[in-house]
Structures are given as structure tokens and as C-alpha cells.
Design brief:
Elements: H1 21-41, E1 46-51, H2 55-70, E2 74-75, E3 84-89, H3 94-113, E4 118-123, H4 129-138, E5 144-146, H5 154-163, E6 168-170, E7 191-195, E8 197-198, H6 209-213, E9 217-218, H7 221-233, E10 238-242, H8 259-267, E11 274-278, H9 287-295, E12 302-304, H10 312-317, H11 324-337, E13 342-349, H12 356-369, E14 373-378, H13 396-418, E15 425-433, E16 440-445, E17 450-454, E18 463-471, E19 475-480
The structure holds S-adenosyl-L-homocysteine, iron/sulfur cluster and FE3-S4 cluster.
Length: 482
């Protein structure tokens, strides 16, 4: 992909109809427009991409950045100074939406002062027709709106905007298409997210993701392996395999393949040191996967296994397809097979109809599993989901009280669980210079915990052995082992 000579593409011809060639053509065309504009104003054009939401969106943003850099924009971390500001949005909870509207209002004022400025909106929020209506009406200054299914067309959409004076809107309801071999610019040189599937078919009753990300599609294993091999050749040692429910990977492929089988193939890639994945749905976590994890040398000792609630009654209303007992049994099996595994989770408080008794079940499962960490969320009503129409929405003050009690429990347990590794030595992937003290480096252990230790920048991207001197609750202070 990196070897394409965009200047050699003949722009007097029509755009090719096949992908990714069509996008290469539009990248070449956009380069021309960007360089003309840069000459006109006598400086480089700059961009700033802001990502809301999950790792999927973070990976999508890398694809946006890949295109922007290829067409000649330079990164500008300060949104206020950038010529092209993009919000890659999330709509999983109401407050994610509110943040976007708030910031968008401020951007409008900035645009008045910079006539070259483009504002682009994409991501999950744009898949909601009411959102697009609102932007068309109240935020007329936006230049470009597209959704989650056609992000691969980014270069083409930029060209459309350059060639018209109006707001460009392109949203698809769903797609069965996966376009390979598009550019992307990694945020980290040594680790990368890799999409293995898109969309979700689970329709948990509270969740909007299946509506905004479309039906589940798995990438071909050959394309995944080829991408990872390319990444490894480029210095990547750790990959994070991404999907809303990685455990159902491969079911709809022409030659079906399980997630566990895919992992075994990825394990064989020479030079790749670590494999992570996210997210695992408890209903589909197979014995085969547990077995592969137990025997793997590369799969990290960390499993994110969202429980959502400890009450079987609520789990049923959430359409999660497992009970409290089943979940605990999965946890028992995985701990038996991989004794030092770190478990993390997501929990929703205040789902419609949740009683104090249901909530006690959630506290109980938290106490039984003893998670290394848990993301706790207040239930947010998403229009169009079945739960939004359910009766007995729980009053705000009751939810807030439960949320506070849960958080306290989760934090206390997590501090206890995380400190058990004190005095051990661990393999650590060095990620960055410490934010507060430049003489320290920050690295990540297999179990996803961070450790800070004296070192220097040359270690970034390497796996080193570190002695864990002191547990500090959610992280460690350590010392490099010679
Ligand atoms: N596919 C992943 C989750 C993606 S969304 C999975 O099934 O585990 C990430 C988390 O957001 C979910 O695990 C859930 O805890 C939370 N979430 C989703 N919808 C929500 C809502 N309507 N209100 C509050 N939290 C929600
Ligand atoms: Fe949402 Fe459930 Fe799909 Fe996760 S599995 S994205 S919670 S519908
Ligand atoms: Fe948000 Fe979309 Fe991810 S709604 S959580 S960014 S899939």
C-alpha cells in the first residue's frame, strides 16, 4: 500500500469503479486540491481528528489520519488552529452526544475566523437520522458528514467537498462490504488495533451499537494475517484484535472458522509478541478458546468479559443470553485454565426495572469474581432500542446511589486484586515516557496493568523484564532487571 505512486495516477481519466483503486484515484485528486490551496495561502494545511468512544472508533480515526496525511494535511494537535477538524463520534450513551454538540457550537465561532476551515463529522452518532437532521438545521457550517459504513470513501468525500460549495452528506443504512488495503496511520509505532469483524448481531436491549454499526461481518482470515504480517514488518509487536463480539468471529465466512482457530493462526506470525482482543461476549466464550488461551505463548493474560448485571432476571431483559450462574461458571473455567489471568468487565446500573435485589446480585457477582477493574455505567436510554420503551425506568437518585455504592466496591476490590503481583518480575512492553517524571518509563504488563520504572526513550516498543517493587493501587513502581 505504501508503495503507491499517487503522482503517477492519471486524473484526466474517469475514476475506477473498483475499490481500493477508486480511493487511490481520489487520494491523488485530493492531493492536487490540497497543494493548490496550500500555495494559495502560503502555508501547509493542517488537521485535527478527535475521537470519541471505543477502540473501533480509535482504529477508524487512524484510517482518517492515514488519508489526511497522504493528501498533504499536517497534524495539528490544537483543534483551535487546525484547518480541517473532524469529530469521530460515539452515541453509546447520551452524554457522548451532548459533548459533541457542545464542542460543535464552539467550532462554529472558530470557522467564522478561518475561511479555509473544514469541519467533518463521522462515526456512530451520524448513523442516527435525527442527529443529521439536527446538524442540517442548527449547525449549517458543517462541511462533511459521513457514517460508519462508508469511512473507506473518505478521500472521495473530501474531493466532493472541494468541488462543491455545500455541505456533503453521505450516510449508508448498512453494508455488507469490507474494503481492504486502505491507508492508515498508527498512533503507536509498536502496537496496533486490527479489525477482525465489523458490526454486531446481538441486539442487547439497551444498546444502540447494532443499529449504528450494522450487521456482523467478519474479515477474511487471510486479509487479517496479511495485515498483521505487514504491521510486524513495520515494527509492531502487539496487536489488539477488535470486534463487538470476537467470540462469534468467522461464523458467516464462506469457509467458517472459529475465533480460537484464528488466534492459533495469528500466534504463528513470527516477530509478533503479544496478542490482545476485545470484546468477548460471555454467551459465546467457548471451551476451545479457553484451551487456546491456556496454551498460547502470545495471548495476553487479560480477558475483558462484560457482565452488565449480576441479576439473571435483568440479564434476560437485557437480551444477554446468559445467567449469573453461567457467567460464574465461565469465570471458574478460565481461572482454572489460566490461573493468573486478569479479568475486567463492564457493568450497567439502573437498567429499567432493576430493583434493590437485582442490584445486590450485581454487587454479589462483583465480590465473587473480584475483577481487576470494571467500567461502571449509568444506564442511558437510547431511542429506538427495546429498553427505551420499557416501563419502570429507575429514578435518577436511586440509580446514582447504586452507582456510588458499586463504584466503591469495585475500586476497593480492584486495589486489593491489583497489588498481589508486588515482588514479582514481569515482562513489560515499554510504551512511553512517564507523563509526570521524564526519568521514568511507562510499560504495560501482559495483564494490562501499568508499571513505571527508571529508563530511557530508547526502550520504547521493546519488551523488558521489570521487578515490581511497590504496588500503588492501580499501577506499580518498578525496576529494570538486568
Ligand atoms: N460489544 C461490547 C460492548 C460495546 S459498548 C460488549 O458487548 O461487551 C461498551 C459498553 O457500554 C457496554 O459493555 C455497556 O456496558 C455500555 N453500554 C452500552 N449501551 C449502554 C447504555 N444504553 N447505557 C449505559 N451503558 C451502555
Ligand atoms: Fe451492544 Fe450487546 Fe452488541 Fe455489545 S454485544 S455491541 S453490548 S448489542
Ligand atoms: Fe461508541 Fe460506536 Fe464504539 S457507539 S462505543 S464508538 S461502536
Amino acid at each position: 500500500m505504501n508503495n503507491i505512486d499517487f503522482d503517477a495516477i492519471d486524473l484526466t481519466k474517469e475514476a475506477p469503479v473498483t475499490e481500493p483503486e477508486r480511493q487511490y484515484y481520489y487520494i491523488a485528486k485530493a492531493r492536487k486540491y490540497v497543494s493548490e490551496k496550500a500555495q494559495e495561502i502560503g502555508r501547509n494545511l493542517t488537521f485535527c481528528v478527535t475521537t470519541f468512544g471505543c477502540q473501533m472508533n480509535a482504529r477508524d480515526s487512524e484510517k482518517l489520519v492515514g488519508v489526511l496525511e497522504l493528501i498533504g494535511y499536517k497534524e495539528e494537535p490544537d483543534e483551535e488552529k487546525a484547518d480541517f477538524v473532524i469529530y469521530n463520534t460515539c452515541t453509546v450513551r447520551e452524554n457522548a452526544n451532548l459533548r459533541v454538540y457542545g464542542r460543535l457550537g464552539q467550532l462554529g465561532a472558530k470557522k467564522k475566523k478561518n475561511p479555509h476551515m473544514f469541519i467533518g463529522l463521522c462515526g456512530c452518532m451520524m448513523q442516527e437520522p435525527t442527529v443529521v437532521e439536527k446538524i442540517k438545521k442548527s449547525y449549517r457550517f458543517v462541511d462533511l458528514i459521513f457514517g460508519t459504513h462508508n469511512i473507506y470513501k473518505f478521500a472521495e468525500l473530501i474531493v466532493t467537498r472541494f468541488e462543491s460549495e455545500r455541505m456533503v452528506i453521505d450516510i449508508w443504512k448498512d453494508t455488507d462490504k469490507i474494503v481492504e488495503d486502505l491507508p492508515s496511520e498508527r498512533k503507536f509505532s509498536f502496537k496496533s488495533g486490527v479489525n477482525i469483524m465489523f458490526g454486531c448481531n446481538n441486539f442487547c436491549s439497551y444498546c444502540i451499537v447494532p443499529y449504528v454499526r450494522g450487521r456482523e461481518r467478519s474479515r477474511n482470515p487471510k486479509d487479517i494475517i496479511r495485515e498483521i504480517e505487514g504491521l510486524v514488518a513495520d515494527g509492531v509487536v502487539e496487536v489488539m484484535l477488535l470486534g463487538q463480539n470476537v467470540n462469534s468471529y468467522g461464523k458467516n465466512l464462506e469457509e467458517p472458522m472459529t475465533f480460537a482457530q484464528l488466534l492459533q493462526e495469528i500466534e504463528k506470525i513470527e516477530g509478533l509478541e503479544r496478542i490482545r482482543f476485545m470484546t468477548s461476549h460471555p454467551k459465546d466464550l467457548s471451551d476451545e478458546l479457553i484451551d487456546v488461551m491456556a496454551h498460547s505463548k502470545k495471548i495476553c493474560k487479560h480477558l475483558h468479559l462484560p457482565v452488565q448485571s449480576g441479576s439473571s432476571r435483568i440479564l434476560q431483559k437485557m437480551n444477554r443470553h446468559y445467567t449469573k450462574e453461567h457467567y460464574l461458571e465461565v469465570v471458574r473455567k478460565i481461572r482454572e485454565a489460566v490461573p493468573d489471568i486478569s479479568l475486567t468487565t463492564d457493568i450497567i446500573v439502573g437498567f429499567p426495572g432493576e430493583t434493590e435485589e437485582d442490584f445486590q446480585d450485581t454487587l454479589d457477582i462483583v465480590r465473587q469474581v473480584r475483577y481487576d477493574s470494571a467500567f461502571t455505567f449509568i444506564y442511558s436510554k437510547r431511542t429506538g432500542t427495546p429498553a427505551a420503551a420499557m416501563e419502570d425506568q429507575v429514578p435518577d437518585d436511586v440509580v446514582k446511589d447504586r452507582f456510588d455504592r458499586l463504584l466503591k466496591e469495585v475500586q476497593q476490590i480492584s486495589a486489593e486484586v491489583c497489588s498481589v503481583h508486588q515482588g514479582t518480575t514481569q515482562d513489560v512492553l515499554v510504551e512511553s515516557v512517564n507523563d509526570h517524571d521524564p526519568s521514568l518509563m511507562t510499560g504495560r504488563m501482559s495483564n494490562n496493568l501499568l508499571v513505571h520504572f527508571p529508563g530511557d526513550e530508547s526502550m520504547i516498543g521493546k519488551i523488558v523484564t521489570v521487578y515490581l517493587k511497590e504496588a500503588k493501587g492501580f499501577y506499580y513502581m518498578g525496576e529494570l532487571c538486568k
